[in-house]
């Protein structure tokens, strides 16, 4: 999925294209997308595709298309101080962008099935914190990643203001996903097809 906007030459051009196509509609989402270079979440040998509006997968590592992430972030209506749960947190790209909006008093949790992907996400997060000029311009809610099956989260876990699941959820799991939300929270996920 993806390909809704033309490819950019760099991260800023990709964001410009997402704005022009109205996938990015609010200033906080634009600022988060500009602050984190999508290419930093790619393996070196695949970086030439980083600014295309396409999903990327290599082994267990996966990034959704930028148009998908921008739609998700806009739909989540993120605000400083909220709690966020990313089910299938993958590379940590989305969670890191969300953390730029949540600020220092937010909660930013990611659950990922594959431990190798958790290690990859932690490396990418460390790289962002150590090297990004953007990091110092935001009050960052650092994501915390754990390995696990999102369908096995204890029912007495804390509930969240915002929940995102990128994988298709079967109808029989819809109520379970809703149970992870606080009253008035927002859940974004693909339901079946």
From TrEMBL:
Residue ranges that the Swiss-Prot or TrEMBL entry lists as coiled coil: none
Lineage, top ranks: Eukaryota, Metazoa, Chordata, Craniata, Vertebrata
GO process annotations (BP): methylation
Tagged with keyword Methyltransferase: yes
Record's subcellular location: Cytoplasm
Family note: Belongs to the methyltransferase superfamily. L-isoaspartyl/D-aspartyl protein methyltransferase family.
Alphabetical list of PANTHER family matching this protein: PROTEIN-L-ISOASPARTATE O-METHYLTRANSFERASE, PROTEIN-L-ISOASPARTATE O-METHYLTRANSFERASE DOMAIN-CONTAINING PROTEIN 2
Signal recorded as keyword: no
GO MF annotation terms: protein-L-isoaspartate (D-aspartate) O-methyltransferase activity
GO cellular component: cytoplasm
Main location, first listed in the record: cytoplasm
Organism: Mustela putorius furo (European domestic ferret)
Pfam families: PCMT
Keywords tagged on the record: Acetylation, Cytoplasm, Methyltransferase, Transferase
InterPro entries found in the cross-reference section: PCMT, SAM-dependent_MTases_sf
Entry protein name: Protein-L-isoaspartate O-methyltransferase domain containing 2
